[in-house]
Amino acid sequence: MVKLNKIYTRTGDDGTTGLVDGSRISKADPRMVAIGDVDEANSAIGVARAALGAGAFDDLLARIQNDLFDLGADLATPAEMEGGLRTVQSQVDWLEASIDGLNDQLAPLTSFVLPAGDPGAAALHLARAIARRAERSAIAAAEVAPVRDEVLRYLNRLSDLLFVAARVVNFRGRGDVLWVPGGSR
């Protein structure tokens, strides 16, 4: 377990931060950008949880938030390090099963969906967009250092799950807000 007695350490004042193995890299390193974007996605999911209240999605989103901490630890662990906390395929499989279960409740799409509707759905759409950025950042990080395939798959599926969850919330409330191509011309 993590135990933090002091929040500031001053070790990052030089623009570096520590990886799990104790090595230090620039805070601007693509791996750290990806970790920051994953953290932002996690925070946006927390906002969505608050907007939705304690309901059907709370356990699902809580599990995802925990998974994202695992994923951030995976990104902060050098590939050659043995025994680090890693994102595993069963986490990706769980996301896929969750997507399928939610999607079964919905009619097929007839148009693109605007990120709007119920406040909880809008918050999920925002989290989805941030998760997509986290995925792009992880892909950029993989260009400079090894990033495990499970990390990339998890982030890809996460944005899909958040999209489908937003649709379910809108289905139960106001309904999807559909894009009308050229509708404001």
Lay out the secondary structure:
Layout: E1 16-18, E2 24-26, H1 30-52, H2 58-75, H3 89-103, E3 113-114, H4 119-142, H5 149-172, E4 177-178
Antiparallel strand pairs: 1-2, 3-4
Low-confidence stretches: none
Radius of gyration: 18 Å
Q: What strand order characterises the main sheet?
A: 1-2
Mean pLDDT: 93
Question: Could you walk me through the main structural features you see in this protein, from its secondary elements to its overall organization?
Answer:
With 185 residues, the protein is mostly helical. The chain is 56% helix and 5% strand. The chain has 5 helices and 4 strands. Strand 1 and strand 2 form a beta hairpin. Helix 1 packs antiparallel against helix 2, helix 1 packs antiparallel against helix 4 and helix 3 runs parallel beside helix 5. The N and C termini lie far apart (57 Å). The model has no long low-confidence stretch (mean pLDDT 93).
Looking at this protein, list some descriptive labels.
185 residues; mainly alpha; two-stranded antiparallel sheet; 4 strands; 56% helix; elongated
Outline:
This protein is mainly α.
